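Our consortium's second objective concerns turning raw sequence data into structural hypotheses that experimental partners can test. To show how far this objective has progressed, the report includes one record in full. It was chosen at random from the queue rather than selected for favorable results. The single chain below, 161 residues long, was entered without modification.
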Amino acid sequence: MSEKIFEKDVTYRAKVRVLAGTDEIVVRPEAQGKPAKKNVVERGDSEMYTTTGTRNPKRVVKLMTPEKSGDLIGDMKRQFDEFITEMGGTPSPDPMERPLRTNDPRLEVWISRERHELVVKKTVKLDMHTDYSTEISNLEGELRRCLLSNRTSLLSASCAQ
């Protein structure tokens, strides 16, 4: 049996058959298959495409945001809306009130795009703290962090007409 040595690693699709009673191996390369994606639309690192499956083709949307994005949900929603409008559809409206993520359960923040309002609820238990002003001041610091991390949603809500 002759041996073929390749200078580089080679990867290809093939059928391998071992002939019975011999030391011979038959490798028959297969033709390259059809691409798995069609109708690909790209926006930066994000993309939308349709799979080519015969039984159950799917529409796939892959959204990529920068790691240091201040508002992941807002950035992904904006990218998704761009894909939808490019296809000729109408982007889904934002919900009337959407909670913003905070690190403190005593602080709840909502954004209402239609009413152009930012709703903040601070909860301080009277029986647990004697210095209420310090607790409220700590919640103010957490509110500032929340507003900075959700700046994309806040800007889009303030610009909504």
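The partners drew two points from this record. The mean pLDDT is 78. The beta strands are 14-18, 25-29, 37-43, 46-51, 59-62, 98-100, 107-112, 117-122. Both points have been shared with the crystallography group to help prioritize constructs.
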